[in-house]
Write a structure and sequence with these properties.
With 226 residues, the protein is an alpha/beta fold. It is built from eight helices and ten strands.
């Protein structure tokens, strides 16, 4: 199959970028012809031989407009190029399937603020257009699914939750044998059960709730690392 993977950027950073690389490697290994469509590329990123990277340069545009214009350019590209499957990891209207990591109205609600300014309005508009477009929608969690329905009245029949993939070559049951070494390396307390929150947005990921919970559990042998 000829498969297009669509995202804004090809970098060694971020959850969606990791998913893009994971899907690229998996699909290429299965023998599919993969084309990555992005508007920003880190030259240090290595993709498998035979994978095409189609870049749509948009650096000349103010950042707030890039996703909007990128979507328009994708339509022109796909009018000329035929693919068996188009998988998007961003806000697009030309996908067969779209990975949904979150939505802007849900983000604003978690941050306790209202939409203001052009950037907010464009992101909300793109979310709504993407969810209303043909194709299956694959939110990364039940929370994101609920937000899509609540804020955009998205047709639930189009939605199927798809959790992010795990690299089982990096993360596997054999790592339990190295637990003591990891604890020493990262300074984790001996004799305590450690909980780890990895986040670039603590409010959205629930840190205030965790802080309240752990404050009420100080008598237990547990610790929270952020």
């Amino acid at each position: 199959m000829r498969i297009a993977l669509i995202h804004t950027r090809l970098l060694y950073r971020g959850g969606l970028e990791s998913r893009l690389l994971a899907y690229t490697q998996y699909l290429h290994a299965k023998g599919h012809q993969v084309t990555i469509c992005v508007y920003k590329v880190d030259p240090s990123v290595m993709v498998p031989d035979g994978v095409e990277v189609k870049r749509f340069p948009l650096r000349w545009l103010p950042k707030v407009f890039r996703a909007w214009i990128f979507n328009k350019r994708l339509h022109k590209f796909f009018d000329k190029e035929e693919f068996d499957l188009r998988i998007s990891l961003g806000r697009t209207t030309c996908h067969d399937a779209m990975i949904v990591a979150g939505n802007h109205l849900g983000f604003l609600a978690a941050m306790g603020r209202k939409a203001s300014g052009l950037n907010d309005r464009l992101q909300i508009k793109l979310d709504g257009m993407a969810y209303a477009s043909p194709g299956v929608l694959l939110p990364a969690s039940e929370m994101v699914k609920a937000q899509m329905i609540q804020f955009h009245q998205t047709d639930e029949r189009k939605i199927q939750v798809l959790y992010p993939p795990t690299d089982n070559k990096r993360f596997h049951i054999g790592l339990k044998d190295k637990k003591a070494a990891f604890r020493k390396k990262f300074g984790l307390a001996e004799g305590k059960k450690s909980f780890l929150l990895i986040s670039a947005n603590h409010e959205l990921k629930g840190l205030p709730i965790l802080l309240k919970a752990f404050a009420a559990l100080q008598d237990l042998q547990i610790e929270l690392l952020v």
